[in-house]
Amino acid sequence: MTPQKVTPEQLRQAETLVAGLAGVSSCRIRVxxxxxxxxxxxxxxxxxxxxxxxxxxxxxxxxxxxxxxxxRKIGVVVVEGAPAPGEGDLEExxxxxxxxxFVFVSVNVAASRxxxxxxxxxxxxxxxxxxxxHTENLSxxxxxxxxxxxxxxxxxxxxxxxxLCLSGIRKVPIGDDDAVVxxxxxxxxRCTKSLAGCALVGGSESQSVVFATLDAVNRxxxxxxxxxxxxxxxx
Length: 235
Fold this sequence. Notes:
This protein is an alpha+beta fold. The chain has four helices and nine strands, in the order H-E-E-H-E-E-E-E-H-E-E-E-H. The protein has two domains: 8-79, GMP Synthetase, Chain A, domain 3, CATH 3.30.300.30; 103-223, Double Stranded RNA Binding Domain (2-Layer Sandwich), CATH 3.30.160.270. The longest helix has 16 residues, at 50-65. The protein has helices at residues 8-19, 50-65, 143-155, 205-218; strands at residues 24-31, 37-45, 74-79, 103-112, 115-124, 127-135, 163-174, 177-187, 192-200. Strands 1-2-3 form a three-stranded mixed β-sheet, covered by helices on one side.
């Protein structure tokens, strides 16, 4: 395939195109340093096989936008019961790349006979924030408490009128790798908006959970109301 550099506008158009395909809930496309598409992450509802969804994405990007993307770069996560775009009062946000994003600093997970506790530290611009979560269920995976701790750290930056709720988290196979998929609901005064985030599991599964959670939240960073200052505190 001939290398194709995509502009930010083309990237947004491609994500909107894929997210509008039948059976697709959300799409996130990443580019490499040269501006060429390196990964396409798709969250789809049950009904089609991941391979068929990837082929549909490949063919539509080619026919509608002239973008040649190898289907092997397209990762598809099929989630049972994932909401359709516009279903109920759920709404999918566009990706906003210009605002300062939440950045991972550290994550610590401790298990004891009292349960599992996760602590996450984040930064945004020159400010830092800390979030923690705990469960007494010793048999449960630590993913949930890590994701909840991440959302609590993010919430330290946000105005009190906005709440972030973890709606679901799973680890699923994508090709030869595993990925963490997170759904976050942004609850405001008048509506609830649903976001999906995804991250491949690398050397640290705990970090991958944080990255997947931030992948969801960073999609709408330009739509959120922030506090004028952030007080760093241990919870």
